Amino acid sequence: MEKIKSIQSKEDAIKLLNIALEHEWAVSFEYTIHAYSMPKGKFFYQDPILKRLQDVRAQTIQIGIDEMYHSLQLGIIITQMGGTPSFKTDEVIRYPRIMDNLKRDKETEDMVTALYQDAEFAEGSFPKVQNMVLNISYDEVRHSDQFVAMMEAMRAEGAEEALCYPPSPESSQKEEVQLLHEIMRDENELMHRYLKYVIMFSEHQDLCQRLFKNSIDHMRNWDKNSGILIKMGDVIRIENAAKDETGREKSASPMPSLYPGENRLSALETLIPAENNLIAKYEKLLSMVPEGEIKDQLEKHLGWDREHVFTQEWLLTNARKIKGLK
Ligand SMILES: [Fe+2]
Ligand SMILES: [Fe+2]
Ligand SMILES: [Fe+2]
């Protein structure tokens, strides 16, 4: 993560926000990957604010979702200030031990808290930005405390050495598993692509809410697919990752940094072929999977994508009809 402390100009403010945004994209992805790599309902911790036992995996996903909201907030304010939000991401790492992932998650929280809280603004300058970064920073403080409590609980029950699900070279050879990995890459790409347009059209609340709904649907599919992968004997993959001799995987480009579409029409036009492409992959996968729970779930995902195509076709047709729509 780059550092910037002294905020003098609008360019400095946008730079701070984009540094934060590249971090938020990465951690929203990294935390969910860490969560999807560990067992469900196995490790619990006492949450310091909720004052109840929580599943480590489920709360880690929840924190990842908070980071996604931070990304949105940052992207929208950068756009309002006349800047261009970055879709590059900081690096993403997965360790073989659950504990090492939690330790990294705590460290990244503290790093970004410092970025937000140490920024020095001239008094009275960019009040909205100042307020926003302070508000976000206390979400990060909360997250850091949660990760600390998770690690304490793991230590207390002697689970320091507990491992993530290992990627399986054998299972990943199977055609259906390879196709599911491809689908997950597309789901992730579409989730972020929709978010780009939510940010672009944040002034147009009708359009932006509709696109946001589709983005969330893709995130939900991604979440469910990660569970299906475990049932098929594999685990969520980090794109473009290199593995070292200790088993640590690291990727500097875990997701695309550019998404097509520069204005309303070109943005809406890219979505229909992308959705149709994903539909074709689901149809192919469904033809390979036997009747049962997995097939039912995949059929639901396919159904939502068919609905997305219906919505997107009308959004595009209606946008073309109205003169003067920017
Ligand atoms: Fe965040
Ligand atoms: Fe956080
Ligand atoms: Fe879709």
Based on helices, strands and strand pairing, what is the structural class? Answer: mainly alpha
Beta-strand fraction estimate:
5-15%
Helical content stands at 55-70%
Output the strand order for the largest sheet: 4-7-6
Count of extended strands: 7
Element-by-element helix/strand order: EHEEHEHEHHHEEHH
**Average residue-wise pLDDT:** 95
Based on CA atoms alone, the radius of gyration comes out at 21 Å
Largest sheet: 3 strands, antiparallel
Distance between the termini: 35 Å
List unreliable stretches of 5+ residues. Answer: none
Tag the structure with descriptive keywords:
326 residues, 3-stranded antiparallel beta sheet, two-stranded parallel ribbon
Describe this structure in words.
The chain has about 325 residues and is mainly alpha-helical. Helix content is about 65%, strand content about 5%. It has eight helices and seven strands, in the order βαββαβαβαααββαα. It has helices spanning about 10-35, 55-80, 100-120, 125-155, 175-200, 205-230, 265-285, 295-320, and strands spanning about 5, 45, 55, 90-95, 120, 240-245, 250. The strands form three sheets. A three-stranded antiparallel sheet has the order 4-7-6. The chain has a two-stranded parallel sheet with strand order 1-5. A hairpin with a 5-residue loop joins strand 6 and strand 7 (about 250). Helix 1 packs antiparallel against helix 3 (about 100-120). The longest helix is centred in the middle third of the chain and has 30 residues, at about 125-155. It is globular, with a radius of gyration of 21 Å. The relative contact order is 0.12. The mean pLDDT is about 95. The protein binds fe (ii) ion (3 copies). The site of one fe (ii) ion has 6 residues, from helix 2 and helix 4.
